[in-house]
Amino acid sequence: MKRFEKSSITIKDIAKKAGVAHSTVSLVMNDREHVSPKLREKILKIANEMGYMPNMVARSLISKKSSTVGVVFPENPHFFTITYFLMIIEGIQNACKKYNRALMFFSLDQTKGESYYQISRKWLIDLMIIMNVDYTRDISKDIQDLRDNGIYFSFLTKYLGKEKVNSVCVDNYEGVRMVLEHLASQGHKRVGYIAGNPNSADGPERTQAYKALYKKMGLDQDEELIVQGDFTFESGEREAPKLLDLKKPPTAIFAASDYMAIGAMRVIKERGLSIPGDIAVMGFDNTLEAAYVEPALTTIRQPLQEMGEKAVDLAIRSMNDESFEPQSLAIKPELIKRQSC
Amino acid sequence: MKRFEKSSITIKDIAKKAGVAHSTVSLVMNDREHVSPKLREKILKIANEMGYMPNMVARSLISKKSSTVGVVFPENPHFFTITYFLMIIEGIQNACKKYNRALMFFSLDQTKGESYYQISRKWLIDLMIIMNVDYTRDISKDIQDLRDNGIYFSFLTKYLGKEKVNSVCVDNYEGVRMVLEHLASQGHKRVGYIAGNPNSADGPERTQAYKALYKKMGLDQDEELIVQGDFTFESGEREAPKLLDLKKPPTAIFAASDYMAIGAMRVIKERGLSIPGDIAVMGFDNTLEAAYVEPALTTIRQPLQEMGEKAVDLAIRSMNDESFEPQSLAIKPELIKRQSC
DNA sequence: AAGAGACCATGAAACGTTTCGAAAAGTCCA
DNA sequence: TGGACTTTTCGAAACGTTTCATGGTCTCTT
Q1: Which of B13, B105, B126, B141 to mutate to test the interface with A (most CBs of A within 10 A)?
Q2: pLDDT for residue B112 is more than 80
Q3: B151 and B263 share one domain
Q4: Which of A53, A209, B43, B168 could form an SS bridge with A176, CB 3.0 to 4.6 Å?
Q5: The pTM is what?
Q6: Looking at per-residue confidence, does B75 or B308 come out higher?
Q7: B157-181: average pLDDT
Q8: CA–CA separation, B277 vs B265, rounded Å?
Q9: Residue A63 lies in a domain
């Protein structure tokens, strides 16, 4: 089998057949003015007959743009199983369709010295979604490089640097408020809190919101009621007993992630306590599993899909409008009432 | 802010600095022979200092290859929430890293006349993973086009056409065998079966396996015991009552997907029956939710990640070895014993 | 009927690579 | 020392587009 025997139809083939210059065909294909309607018609017809399909790569080379949205996430072989990310990606995928762009994925290995800018240059990515950041490294140089080279981007996480950049994240304060209000409205006074990963952007923010709000809600203020998890199921299983074993145990547990909440639930059930009878549980995230555990978990839904879509929208707006100020969007979450409280 | 002020380092910049022809630099960058070690060293050093990064787009244009794996799936806005696909994609992502390729995603809208080959041409994709096929259309011309143009591909689903192609799917027969054997070993004689979507590749295959096997396993043969679902949670909820309402109801239900099994479980529990005490339930797929329902679902794990990786491996082998015969891999699944039976 | 505009179409250059035939530079041996 | 190799380096062409200055062809006005 010979390869590339049948080479594909180019703009020149069409030009030859139509008896015009290939630059004219280019104008037609890009829907630009200054081509007579008659000629345009003719060229389009021929292109259609011949089954022309533009070569995006050649187009990218000259325009220095790739018609692509590049999603960059940190090196982590298990990235894709984390449902949290997946739903965001669905949103990005939708946006790509809307803007007629292809979607590319890159994992960034910062330990090998790879930078966001290098990736953009290597693949001529002109629109980048940055999904998560290792804040232990200085990222501001990268940001500057992207900016200097006309690459538009959004962060899909809280951006902790000083620069003003497009970013989309959930409104953690509002989410925590909803949780505590809901619990308070059901008469809970003592609410145990399992905090999330302190090295993330969301973990500390939720904890801060919790501390800022519980007095306002009239809940018990007691440092004992706060334990430190890291968003994982295991940390929920590990930390929940500390709350249950208190002299004065809480009547409700709020975990900063669903996975931790589910871990806590397992422990509670193993001890023969009933949920929500003996103790209520609330999570945060509305991951897929939350609906399937028993009892189904009451939690806060982050509109992840919407967030993914918004992130692309912001970057596109920056691209189309030079005067558009980078925005930091905090998306309002939603309370999902189920059976766990 | 001016754009592209700082244009990036090219092979020519390096050539100028090193005082050589840019073609020589190209040879060095591609690790080709016929360059003296001394010069090679010097060029590499300069390239490194200047922070050279190859322009993959220019490279693609000339080589007609994109160093990319293109994953193509059918137009379906909710593609990405289906965990089944996601785990496969994780495998593909791993393989991409292994072969140092970027990952691109495309949704194919066959109603608009888009073909697999067109996508490959448009983006110079030379390695394609085809995730699912609309078998109501004739795909053999597409296959031929891909072949004729040296584009290597694997199907990540059972391929139903006549051609010999690379394909990776789960061994459904073996999976069903494991289920029935497990149920039989626990003394079940009457096993209800909720069939999957009849228009898919997997649905009929599992049903066929069920029918071929239940006599061998000494189970009751009774057409009443087979009901028709479509893989969704809702169809499980809808069909399970038909089995429970039989004059002689089954002692176990086997659903051809976890989602249907979970739907069935909900109905069973609503009727106040205990699982597995009154009735055992088994699923198929080992989706994420299976571990979290109560009781946790005994099911068949498809090694999805492995399948994704294998699909890329096969395509790469075809690419590297012209004489490699396309293979059709049926991956052995695994029984995951949990509490539902 | 000629000059001024407006509109169309063209051809060449460019994008950053790879490839390949040919030139240049080494090496070896007689 | 010169011819015959071999190895190294070079230069030009090519990949399929877009862009843009230039020139040609209309149509209108005076």
Answers
A1: B105
A2: no
A3: no
A4: A209
A5: 0.83
A6: B308
A7: 93
A8: 13
A9: no
Mean pLDDT of the region A167-192: 95
Mean pLDDT of B11-28: 95
- Token pair belonging to B9: 């380092």
Residue A80: predicted pLDDT: 53
Asked if pLDDT for residue A2 goes beyond 70, the answer is no
Q: What is the domain-level CATH number for residue B204?
A: 3.40.50.2300
How many other CB atoms sit within 10 Å of the CB of residue A186? Answer: 12
Q: Please indicate whether, in this complex, the C-beta atoms of B66 and A57 are within 8 angstroms of each other.
A: yes
Rounded to the nearest integer, the mean pLDDT of chain A is 89
For residue A299, give the nearest of A286, A309, A288 by alpha carbon. Answer: A286
Q: Which domain holds residue B110?
A: 68-170+306-332
Q: How far apart (Å, rounded) are the C-alpha atoms in residues B337 and A186? A: 39
Specify if B339 maps to a domain: no
Query: Of A122, A128, A320, which to mutate for an interface test with B (greatest number of B Cβ within 10 Å)?
Result: A122
* C-alpha pair distances (Å), A46 with each of A26, A53, B340: 13, 12, 63
CB B209 within 8 A of CB B177: yes
- CA-based torsion, B9, B14, B16, B17: positive or negative: positive
Q: Please give the pLDDT value at position A200.
A: 79
Q: How far apart are CA B263 and CA B253, in angstroms?
A: 12
Q: Quick one: which residue's CA is nearest to C9's C1'?
A: A24
- Please indicate, yes or no, whether residues B259 and B186 belong to a single structural domain of this protein: yes
CA of A55 to C1' of C7 (A): 30
- Contact across the interface for A104 and B102, Cβ inside 8 Å: yes
